[in-house]
Specification:
The chain has about 775 residues and is mostly helical. It is built from 27 helices and eight strands. The protein has a two-stranded antiparallel ribbon. It has a two-stranded antiparallel ribbon with strand order 3-8. The longest helix is centred in the N-terminal third of the chain and has 56 residues. It starts with a helix and ends with a helix. About 10% of the residues have low confidence.
Length: about 775
């Protein structure tokens, strides 16, 4: 029976603590007794000069008794260790549930009730006279709280079940025989059970599969568990065979329940492999596992006789690598080997792909279904780097000299690689494999190659932000090395380059730009190389992640913003980040007007750059009557209204987690650096702007509608630039004459930013 939240909150864990203490005393007493038995009666029995039947019987009795006492000591030790570990974990879980229910829920005005099956429902209690209307932020908070409590309850239930199972095995079925299973920790008991279940393979019932996933879900990051689990599979070959068969079995057909379980297994195995292969963890798998995975990467793994040729090891391994934060020493040699194999033969792994013809598009080694079907290991390993920020940073850094690998994965110390990984993967002519089972002639085939650049974007996001691309909430961990990689991104994806970014990469570029909105502002404040003399370092000090500002080269900052903000989604992300960054700077400057004024004037220039970039994009979209017939300007929408409270977690997270509204189409939260007060304290800003939504659902006359779209955008952009300063002026008690002068300067800077982009547009025509 599953634990309820009431059970976990009210249970007296002090009694369990007393039991732990009691068993500890029993262990100590039995240890003394066992030692006395060995050195006392057993030693005397062995030394006695007895003969005859009685002597034989007596010696046998003494030997058996000594063994039973030793077995009782072992059993008591096992019970003590399991109970002690369980008590430690349950105390932590109880504290977290109590905080969630008694503190967090109360603050939000939410009630929590059990709904059975070890789950709760969180809801807003009706208050007389209340309309019961909730903001999206409130609804999201309710959902997060409910999910958090349910996960804590699931973890507690898993511990309860594991402890009960371990105690049964330690005690055994024979009350007269103490020699049974023993465990040095609860982790050991859990890894043993996981191994038992894994040995069933595709014969696992759904209930057993759920149990395996439950054990792995809450222990995958524990090195003791993860290392023991992977060793129990046998080795790299057995690991690939197990996962390959499980993923193909789980993705075949239309069994949604089995598919969901297989998706959980994929994530759990990835997280566990990352833990087990981290050389800094104790224990961890031998380094030879990485070498063997590279060797098997180009070997066929026997997982399914229906394949025209069995999959390569890298295709199977790729499904696991998609999840987990991997150490660079493990994943980067694999990633480098895969890139080099692709360089030699881009279609190499596509030959080992089933001829499904679109009949079963889920079938493969990526049950998650995100970024490819799982037959292209390059996409898979890039997705893995997207969850491994330190490894991604090293992989794309120019400071790292790539190692050359032979086909079998061994290092060729005599060879030198003639290209950099960043330039190789971002080259306009790079051939991305079609990691899909769609029929070549289908509508979906047009997007079959989208998974690769999408995964590349995720890997680059991790490399430049120091956080997994889909971290929730995202954090910023920037340094000189991450900035150098971002410099490569800014230079490569500039509007001055004839070949723009692939469509699937654009959302990542926008989020990367948002994460470096402070450096973009810093770079713009350098007219005629005046930045140093005007002390822009002092003006842009106190970033929320503690990093130092570094300028991007020449005009690359404005050209990057022009490229990204030219399209609606990129403009939406960058302008929201700019608004948030500008608001934090003004809030920080309430006691420092000397710096606040030049800060907002420069921010106005950046706003102008972004707005004019989008205006140019709109004009481009209306360029032909054929395109214009499919576009329309609709009523103002919600995507430019960014209402959020930020900064309360700025010190901890290094920025704000920006999430645009549902109309934005941006699912992943975006980390935005904030300006901190000189003392380093956090800032809370509630920031709202006028709205604009550009829709594609009505026909209209080309030129007038295009002009209206641009003019409406400009009006919204001007207000978004001026209104924050006017609120600031009111807060600091600024006089009317000074307000007029500064607004004029803001307008000048805003239009200066627009003119920069207009000039670029004229040059490009």
């Amino acid at each position: 029976m599953a634990l309820t939240h009431t059970d976990l909150m009210e249970i007296d864990l002090g009694r369990l603590d007393s039991a732990v203490s009691g068993w500890k005393k029993a262990v100590d007493d039995l240890n003394t007794l066992a030692e006395d038995a060995r050195q006392g009666m057993r030693a005397k029995s062995d030394a006695a000069r007895w003969a005859g039947v009685n002597a034989t019987v007596t010696r046998g009795f003494v030997t058996k008794t000594t063994k039973e006492i030793a077995d009782l000591h072992t059993e008591a030790g096992s019970i003590h260790q399991v109970l002690d570990d369980a008590h430690t974990e349950l105390v932590s879980l109880q504290k977290q549930v109590r905080t969630a229910v008694q503190v967090d829920a109360v603050k939000l005005g939410i009630r929590v009730e059990d709904v059975g099956g070890g789950k709760v429902r969180c809801y807003f209690a009706h208050v007389r006279g209340d309309s019961d209307e909730r903001t999206q932020e409130q609804l999201d908070a309710r959902e997060e709280l409910e999910g958090r409590i349910n996960q804590l309850l699931a973890h507690a239930s898993e511990i309860d079940a594991s402890v009960a199972r371990a105690l049964r095995k330690s005690h055994g079925d024979d009350r007269h025989n103490a020699g049974h299973s023993s465990y040095a920790s609860l982790d050991e008991a859990q890894s043993e059970r996981a191994a038992e279940l894994a040995k069933l393979g595709t014969e696992l019932t759904d209930q057993q599969f759920m149990e395996l996933n439950s054990i792995m879900r809450f222990n995958a990051r524990d090195a003791d568990f993860s290392t023991a689990f992977y060793k129990s599979l046998g080795g790299p070959m057995e690991t690939l065979e197990f996962y390959g068969k499980m993923s193909l079995d789980g993705t075949a057909g239309d069994d949604k329940a089995r598919l969901a379980l297989t998706r959980q297994l994929q994530q759990n195995m990835g997280t566990a492999l990352a833990s087990a292969t981290d050389p800094d963890n104790k224990p961890h798998l031998p380094a030879g596992w990485g070498d063997e995975f590279r060797r098997l990467g180009t070997q066929h793994i026997p997982v399914d006789p229906t394949f025209r040729s069995n999959p390569y090891g890298y295709q199977v391994l790729g499904g696991i690598l998609r999840y987990g934060d991997y150490d660079a020493r493990f994943i980067n040699p694999i990633a480098g080997h895969i890139v080099q194999l692709h360089h030699e033969d881009p279609a190499r792994f596509m030959y080992a792909k089933p001829a499904a013809g679109g009949a079963d598009l889920d079938w493969g080694f990526n049950p998650s279904g995100q970024t490819g079907a799982g037959y292209d290991p390059l996409t898979s390993v890039l997705q893995g780097l997207g969850h491994s920020p330190d490894a991604a940073k090293q992989f794309f850094s120019n400071e790292t000299t790539p190692v050359v690998y032979r086909e079998d994965g061994t290092v060729d110390e005599t060879a030198t690689l003639g290209y950099e990984y960043f330039k190789e993967l971002t080259d306009a002519d790079f051939e991305w494999p079609a990691d899909s089972l769609v029929h070549p002639g289908s509508d979906e085939a047009d997007h079959a190659r989208d998974a690769g650049p999408d995964a590349l974007g995720h890997a680059l996001e991790a490399a430049v932000t120091g956080s997994a691309w889909d971290a929730d909430p995202p954090t910023l961990h920037r340094d000189e090395q991450t900035h150098d990689i971002m410099q490569q991104v800014v230079n490569r994806y500039s509007v001055t380059n004839a070949d723009g970014p692939p469509d699937p990469l654009k959302d990542s570029l926008a989020r990367m730009g948002a994460a470096y909105i402070d450096d973009l502002n810093y770079s713009i404040m350098n007219f005629g190389d005046s930045g140093d003399q005007l002390d822009r370092d002092g003006l842009f000090a106190h970033s929320s992640d503690g990093s130092q500002r570094t300028a991007f080269e020449d005009f690359s900052a404005r050209n990057f913003m022009m490229q990204v903000a030219g399209e609606e989604d990129g403009y939406r992300t960058l302008t929201a980040a700019q608004q948030l960054y500008m608001a934090s700077g003004l809030a920080a400057g309430e006691t420092d007007r000397e710096n606040a004024i030049p800060f907002v004037e420069n921010a106005a220039k950046v706003h102008g750059i972004l707005d004019e970039s989008r205006s140019q994009g709109i004009r481009e979209e209306f360029k032909s009557a054929e395109d214009a017939a499919n576009l329309a300007l609709s009523k103002d929408g919600e995507w430019r209204k960014t209402l959020m409270t930020v900064g309360v977690t700025a010190v901890a997270t290094g920025g704000a987690a920006m999430v645009l509204g549902p109309a934005a189409g941006v699912v992943t939260a975006t980390a935005v650096p904030l300006v901190m007060q000189s003392g380093g304290s956090a800032i809370t800003t509630v920031y709202g702007n006028h709205t604009l939504q550009y829709m594609e659902d009505h026909a209209y006359n080309n030129d007038p509608e295009a002009l209206m779209a641009v003019q409406t955008l400009e009006q919204a952009g001007e207000r978004a630039t001026a209104q924050p300063f006017l609120r600031y002026a009111q807060n600091v008690g600024m006089g009317l004459p000074e307000q007029r002068d500064i607004v004029n300067e803001i307008e000048t800077n805003y239009r200066s930013g627009k003119h920069i982009i207009s000039d670029n547009e004229k040059v490009a025509q």
